Amino acid sequence: MKLRLTGLLLSALVLAPAIALAQGDGIQIENAWSRAAIQGRTGVVYLTIVDHGAADRLTGVSSPVAQRAQLHESFSEAGVSKMRPVPSLELDQGKPVVLAPGGYHIMLMDLKRPLNQGDTFPVTLTFANAGQVTVQVAVQGAGAAMPMHMPMHGNGMPGTKP
Ligand SMILES: [Cu+2]
Prior knowledge:
disordered C terminus, binds copper (II) ion, 10-stranded mixed beta sheet, mainly beta
């Protein structure tokens, strides 16, 4: 009986790091998607971050498909759609942060390879507390405003990309 309990404890200890790595310590990434884009150009990634743990902060993004990745914010100035880099994003427990067309997004600069519709590629998000979380991004068509399975809301206008 005692031996058996030790065995259980040991397997729990072995499994724990793998689970922490996959879930990023309470950080969950949902609906990660991108648009088809050609090599050498700019790509974009949209996703939703849900923080199930303590307050955290997204401090960096990277992807092997691009020379550089940056967190960006779209905004409108005098009726012209523009964007600027955002150094970090605050996360509160239970308050999902949505990266979507017309708002926050991950910009992939100088793509090392084309992003073709139907492909998936990894993006790694770095959090102040949770560390690195890698997610697979699904590539939609070049003109996709929203993934097909997501309800349209807000101003998901086709002209406001990224
Ligand atoms: Cu951008």
